[in-house]
Design brief:
Length: 338
């Protein structure tokens, strides 16, 4: 291994973070390149990132970081980034000045998730159905939580190239007559039927209300976490049906993206919702909907699908990128401050 290959992306120890619309996870990559324990909490606990770092994160870290690499559920524009579904605004220059950092790098959160895929520990995933992975072929990760994210990872020579997207905002339409009734209900209250409008926490709530409405029932004012809990416990038929539809629709969406990328390297499901529903994913309609893509059922059957069960997979991706930057074809122009 050359001296260039051994050089980390940024000075160590480095603060790393996966900051979504609902939850934030922080850790450090120490001077030996090892990942520390994770500090996690809801974004809403703090008014901004600076307050969170000062009051919660820095006191819990072992040693003061020299740099930071942050993965955000945000679009990075200029010298600031605003969370798409959250209240924080991240300004790298302020972080450098306030916390004495030498460098700050900002990445998309699904970019970091994609970088974790080649080296996920075996105990960090749960298979959903069959298929056989082709290691060098494109891989895909999708995740439903506050929003819906998606990214691909493709091989470019000796490097991996992560391709983040705004795939959660594509149009997503009905297939069956039952779907059509649900979509009509959603259209009455939302501007458009994007994939995220259905495949997210808020989407679970929309599906629940639509099913209750279709059955002539008065839907209780439940949040998605309550619907998931009731559906898993089988205490609420409408909640159970909601989770079944949610996993089927997510399988359909994942299958569409797998066709676009020919993701023979495998499709991974991440996010805040799916790990709570592992049995429904592995035994429910997800895989059937994923494969049902005539005339390509044979191709789809060959593509493996997994549920990521690791609590902070994006941090694994950031750690690998910091330790082996030459393994990834990533342009940091406009995303690296010193």
């Amino acid at each position: 291994m050359s001296e260039h290959d051994r050089k980390p992306l940024v000075p160590l120890p480095a603060l790393i973070a996966d900051i979504g619309g609902t939850n934030a996870r922080f850790a450090t990559v120490d001077s030996n390149g090892a990942l520390s324990e994770t500090v996690a909490f809801p974004v809403a606990d703090h008014t901004d990132l600076g307050q969170a770092l000062t009051g919660r994160v820095m006191p819990a870290l072992f040693g003061r970081p020299q740099s930071a690499v942050l993965a955000l559920a945000a679009t990075i524009q200029g010298d600031r980034a605003e969370l798409t579904n959250g209240p924080w605004t991240i300004e790298p220059k302020q972080l450098i000045d306030h916390f004495g950092l030498s460098e700050v790098v900002l990445l998309n959160d699904f970019e970091a998730l994609a970088m974790a895929l080649p080296n996920l520990p075996e105990d960090a995933t749960l298979p959903i159905g069959g298929g056989r992975r082709v290691a060098s072929e494109p891989k895909l990760v999708i995740g439903a939580g506050t929003g819906l994210g998606a990214a691909a990872l493709v091989r470019s020579g000796t490097q991996w190239l992560p391709l983040p997207s705004e795939g959660g905002h594509v149009e997503f339409g009905p297939v069956t007559s039952g779907d059509a009734a649900i979509w009509e209900h959603i259209r009455r209250s939302d501007e458009r039927s994007s994939a995220e409008a259905i495949l997210s926490g808020a989407g679970i709530e929309r599906l629940y209300r639509a099913l209750a409405d279709g059955a002539g029932l008065a839907a209780e004012p439940l949040v998605s976490a309550d619907i998931v809990t009731r559906g898993i416990a089988a205490h609420d038929t409408t909640a159970g049906d909601t989770l079944g539809l949610f996993t089927a629709y997510l399988g359909r969406y994942a299958g569409d993206l797998a066709l676009i990328y020919l993701a023979r390297g495998g499709v991974y499901v991440a996010g805040g919702i799916a790990p709570r529903m592992s049995e429904i994913f592995t035994k429910g309609p997800f895989r059937e909907a994923f494969v049902d893509k005539p005339p390509f059922q044979a191709l789809m059957t060959s593509i493996p699908t997994w549920l990521i069960t690791h609590p902070a997979p994006a941090l694994l991706g950031l750690t690998d990128f910091i330790n082996r930057p030459s393994g990834y074809a990533i342009d940091l122009t406009g995303r690296h401050w010193q």
